[in-house]
User: Fold these one by one.
Assistant:
Number 1:
Amino acid sequence: MMTGLASPRANPWIGAIAPYTPGEAKLASGVQPIKLSANENPWGPSPVAIEVIRAHAHGVNRYPDGAATRLRQRLAFLHGLDPERIVVGTGSDEILQLLPLIYCAAGDSVVHVRHGFMVYPIAARRAGAEPLAAPDQDYVADVDAILATVRADTRLVYLANPNNPTGTMIARAEVARLHAGLRPDVLLVVDQAYAEYLDDPDPDGALELARHAPNVVVTRTFSKIYGLGGLRVGWGTGPAAVIEALNRVRTPFPTATVALAAAEAAIADQEWVARCREANRNERARLAAAIDALQDHGLRAVPSAANFVLMTCPEHGPLSATAIKAGLEANGILVRHLPSQGLPHALRISVGTHEDTSRLIACLNRLAA
């Protein structure tokens, strides 16, 4: 054995990455929980997609279509896009992670909203870039603050709209104003993971921007309203040059055969999507109203356009975020506490089924009694 030689060293910026921590899925007791910690669709995928998954199980010995040709064609038809300007990835996360690797050099910067998706700073640091957090206004993205945070070395701006973990959203005019205020060499990445929870097929106009602007990319996912989080399918669209670059660096087979088939079936069943959208709207309203009924106890539901509600809590006492989280877990309910995202005083609660919501509301009322 050779000794005294230096061992392999990771790039220095890798050590600055705080690893992504998913929502908890298990209780210490081992009891099956009501899982409201990961913004999943509690009604699951379309029954048509489930049947397709079963039917395609026999073909997993074959490599998938790395170009996701049929899925891109179906996405293009549904959204009025050019299939050649769509890229499919292992969840939208893969696309979000690759963009700084393509457009940033070590020492550049990437801007995101302060209370935003934790993948953004990870993606920036992975490329050796510095993540810059722009202040928000009452948990809503502030376009002026984002533009003021952009530096000469900024190469990319992330905007989740609706935003995770706050659920808030800025309007079409504000997205257009943000884009207009950026230099042409700055790539605006609009993460529309929760867009299908709104009635408008392009609720903030980002898809339309991506059709024409040379510096706008939109990402979407099958993990939320389509209920395919376990299969990891996402997609993005934007300028031809950006899509070409993504296709050069993505993995050769980013999406499994079964996942591709399930996604193709899922987007064909828009009736199921509409039913999930309506059920989510109803249960989200029930949850928000129940939280706001406890305002005298210091609880507040931040207005949400997604499939979760951010509940702010008193900083101390029996209804602090940590105390409520523990109380919910004692009753078999898992929610998300995000102190690492500057929200030690808040819990993100995913929308569940009617029964899930009823049990959660009853538990909150008992804790506040």
Note: Residues 275 and 337 are 29 Å apart (CA to CA).
Number 2:
Amino acid sequence: MVPLNELLLFSGAALLMVLTPGPNMIYLISRSICQGRKAGVISLLGVIAGFLVHMFAAAIGLTALFLAVPLAYEILKWAGAAYLLYLAWQAVKPGARSPFEAGQLPEDPPSRLFFMGFLTNVLNPKIAVFYLSIFPQFVSPEHGSVFMQSVVLGLTQITVSFTINLAIALSAANLVSWFVRNPRWLAAQRYFMGFVLAGLALRLAAEQRRAA
């Protein structure tokens, strides 16, 4: 099974990823602001369903494949690091928007809220990169079943994401209102997230392949 220190480190990486700007956060904040907390929570349930797709895709075979094929592992590792640097640039580039600057969305019925949350996450490149590039760094055949390790890590990531996103959905109006009154913090939040993403990219690039 995944060692406790590795699980804690993975939880930290999952926390950093959920706190960084991305389609999920922007959609949940915008939906909660435009249609209320209930709509935000329903949308979040769709997002969680999308996480399950990513998790089982990794658990069923992708992680084992990347651990077994050094070239595929290295290509995805560097692609993941490059994408994290891209996200860092998107956060700090001139004219960049913070996810706390919500957009306007029309009201939708619960079924569409769930589906849009699901689709937003399934097609979210940030989550795909996390599961394809960062995820395998914490899986090792030495620790037992790759499938079970993948499930444990996936459920850990989903728990972290659900907890943070639920808090965001329930307090979106207050968060956005606070950032509107304190615009300097919008810029500070963007630069902090850019710094964190760049650091995560460098760590990923420096990570050595686990022995099979």
Note: The chain has one domain: 4-138+146-206.
